[in-house]
Amino acid sequence: MKTVKIDSKTINSWETFHNVFSQKFNFPSYYGRNMNAWIDCMDELNNELTLIDLGDCRELKERNPEIIEAINECSAFVNYRKIEAGESAVITISMFV
Question: Whole-prediction pTM value?
């Protein structure tokens, strides 16, 4: 399993969320910086289970709870699409909230 560590304290807005994920996962230059584009990019993970370790997310949850919710919901959707296609889930999340 691949592990990608993200310091949730570096995420304080949607802009920084997209900056951090784009950098950590090497999203293409045409990345649309919205959650539909995020789903598409994460769906292209090489069918390798990837642990996204966000660490302590209490501050992020307090400042921007909708970002935490989006990470959970959109990761679940990526996994759902993979499973529906007969493939394995590719994202698992670790965070302390």
Answer: 0.94
Identify whether the C-beta of residue 38 lies closer than 8 Å to the C-beta of residue 21: yes
3-state class (DSSP) for residue 85: coil
CB-count burial class (<10 Å; 0-12, 13-18, 19+) for 89:
middle
The answer to whether 25 touches 51, Cβ cutoff 8 Å, is no
The CATH class that applies to domain 2-96 reads: alpha beta
**Domain boundary assignment for the chain:** 2-96
Q: What is the share, in percent, of the chain residues with pLDDT greater than 90? A: 95
CB-based contacts of 68, cutoff 8 Å, min separation 6: 57, 60, 61, 95, 97
